[in-house]
Amino acid sequence: MILLSPLGALGRLTLDILSAVGRVAIFAALTLRHILTPPFYPREIAHALLQIGWLSLPVVGLTAIFTGGALALQIYAGGARFNAEAVVPQIVAIGMVRELGPVLVGLMIAARVTSSIAAEIATMKVTEQIDALVTLSTHPMKYLTAPRVLAALITVPLLVGVGDVIGIFGGYAVATQNLGFNPATYLKNTVDFLEMRDIVSSLVKGCVFGGIAALMGCYYGMNSGRGAQGVGRATKGSVEAAAVLILAANFLLTGVFFSV
User: Fold this and answer.
1) What is the pLDDT of residues 70-94, one digit of tens each?
2) Helix, strand, or coil here: 72?
C-alpha cells in the first residue's frame, strides 16, 4: 500500500491534467464555432478591438524599444570578445522578429488583457450578469467570449509587427548614437538579413499568442468561483496559464518554422 500511494497520486494528477486540457479544448472549439456563426455583435467586437489593440500600444512600444536597445548593447559587448561587433544589426533584427518581439508582446498582452478579461467576466458571473444574459436569450460565449477572442486574433499580430519595428528602431538608435554604427549601413544590413519567413513566423506567432491570451481570460472568467476570492483566483490562474501556454506555443512554432 505504501508503494501504491505515490502511483495513485500520480495517476490522479495525470487525470486532472487531461481533464483540464479536455475542458479547454472543448471551450476553444465552442468559441471558434461562435466566432464563425451568427448572430454577431459588432459593437462588442469594436470595443474589444479598442481595448486589446489600440490601448495596448503604449506598453508594447515601450517594452519593444527598451528591449531592442538592450539587445544591441548586449550583442555588441558579446561580439567584442570575438571581434564580431559588426553583427549587431543582423542579430538585433532576427532576435526581435523571430523571438523577442512576438514573445514579449504575447506576455504583455497576457499581463494586461488576459487579466482584464478574466476579472471582468468573473465579476459578471459573481454579480449574476451572465445569468441575466441567459435570461435575455443571449448566449454568454457568443456575447462575451467570441468578440474578445476574434479581436485578439486580429490585433495582436498587428501589435507584434509594430513591436518588431519599434524594437529594431531601439537597437538602431543605440547602435548609431552610442556604438558608432553608420545609420545607412545599419539599415541596409537589417533589411538584407531579414527573410520573408522571419516576418511570417512573427505574425503567425502573434495570432496564436493573441488567441491563447484572450481564450484563457475568457475560460477562467467563465469558470471562476463565487465571491472576491473566486475573481482573484480566476485572474491569477488566467495569467499564469496564458504565459505558460504562450511560451510552450513559441517553442513549438519555432520548431515548425525553423527546424532544419
Assistant:
1) 999 999 988 878 877 788 899 999 9
2) helix
In this structure, of 15-19, 101-105, 146-150, 233-237, the range with the lowest mean pLDDT score is 15-19
Rounded Cα distance between 196 and 211, Å, is: 23
Please state, for a pLDDT cut of 70, what percent of the chain lies above it. 98
Half-sphere exposure of 221 (CA within 13 A, CB side): 30
Q: Average pLDDT of 9-38?
A: 88
How many CB atoms lie under 10 A from the CB of residue 98?
23
Q: Identify which of 49, 42, 18, 97 has the alpha carbon closest to the alpha carbon of residue 214.
A: 49
Radius of gyration (Cα) for the chain, nearest Å?
Answer: 22
Q: In this structure, what C-alpha cell is assigned to residue 85?
A: 561587433
Task: Please give the distance of CA 174 from its chain centroid, rounded to a whole number.
Answer: 27
**Residue 15 grid coordinates:** 487525470
HSE of 32, CA atoms in CB hemisphere, 13 A: 8
User: How far lies 223's CA from each of 64, 123, 137, 139, 240, in Å?
Assistant: 33, 11, 20, 15, 15
Cis ω before 183 (30° cut-off from 0)? no
Task: Indicate the pTM of the whole model.
Answer: 0.92
